[in-house]
From TrEMBL:
Keyword field: DNA-binding, Transcription, Transcription regulation
Residues in the DNA-binding region annotation: 53-72
Residue spans crossing the bilayer: none
Source organism, top-level taxon: Bacteria
Recorded GO MF terms: DNA-binding transcription factor activity; transcription cis-regulatory region binding
InterPro entries to which the protein is assigned, alphabetical: Homeodomain-like_sf (IPR009057), HTH-type_TetR-like_transc_reg (IPR050109), HTH_TetR (IPR001647)
Name of this chain's protein: TetR family transcriptional regulator
Start and end residues of each HTH tetR-type domain: 30-90
DNA-binding is among the record's keywords: yes
Disordered: region residues: 1-33
Organism of provenance: Promicromonospora soli
Length: 240
């Protein structure tokens, strides 16, 4: 099966020499850029994107406001970086899985599990930022393009799982909507267990596509091992 993903990669943030901190040591221990991303993520997820000022981000990160313009330029650039950091690990999983020889149902199970686990990871519900109306603006085209590449990967695996007699576009939309519904569930259940949710959602994805109990059980067993293999091949995801 030929992948419909185009591996263009995220536009990297230019690495620049650091600027002096306003006060104290780095809260994350990873430097000013990570401090700004971490502070912005927490404020966007708790206070709200619109209500968060660049000064508030700088204050929370313990740096001067000028550091934001030095590292990112704008508040929207910080949001796009957070969005890209949240979707890129799933897109990398998809690329690895599309190149594997296992049955499409097994690879789809693994992708759904890894995607749900990522959306449930960390102490902040970063996936909720996908729902911001600002994400429809032109400035977030790169994120939307990467998310579309992920949708295309799901489409390849869904088509191989259900066959040509089922509308692949409708089935893909149903699967992706269901996977990303964990964002809303996590909002209502902050302590949602990522590993358990990943396996449960992956099982339900195949059930939504009409697979019977035996087929789901086989995909679960093989997909669990495959997901672990793919995870070992990926770089560690950024935690904000």
């Amino acid at each position: 099966m030929t992948s419909s993903i185009v591996d263009k990669g995220a536009t990297p943030t230019p690495r620049r020499p650091g600027r002096p901190r306003a006060d104290g040591a780095s809260p994350t221990g990873r430097g000013t850029e990570s401090d700004l991303l971490s502070a912005a993520a927490r404020l966007f997820c708790t206070v709200g994107y619109t209500a968060t000022s660049t000064r508030a981000i700088a204050d929370a990160a313990g740096v001067r406001q000028a550091s934001i313009y030095h590292w990112f330029g704008t508040k929207s650039a910080i949001l796009q970086r957070l969005l890209l950091d949240s979707v890129e690990p799933s897109l990398e999983s998809a690329r690895l899985l599309l190149a594997r020889p296992e049955a499409p149902a097994v690879r789809l199970w693994a992708l759904a599990r890894l995607d749900v686990e990522l959306l449930c990871s960390g102490d902040l519900n970063i996936g909720a930022l996908y729902l911001l109306p600002e994400v429809a603006d032109d400035g977030f085209a790169t994120f939307r393009e990467h998310r579309e590449q992920l949708r295309a990967a799901y489409g390849d695996l869904v088509s191989g799982t259900v066959g040509s007699d089922v509308g692949p576009d409708d089935a893909t939309a149903m699967v992706l909507t269901f996977v990303e519904s964990v964002i809303l569930r996590r909002r209502d259940e902050p302590g949602l267990d990522a590993a358990r949710a990943g396996q449960r959602y992956a099982d339900l994805v195949l059930r939504l596509l009409g697979l019977d109990d035996d087929a789901v059980a086989r995909a679960h067993e093989a997909g669990s091992a495959l997901a672990d293999t793919v995870r070992r091949k990926k770089p560690v995801a950024r935690q904000n």
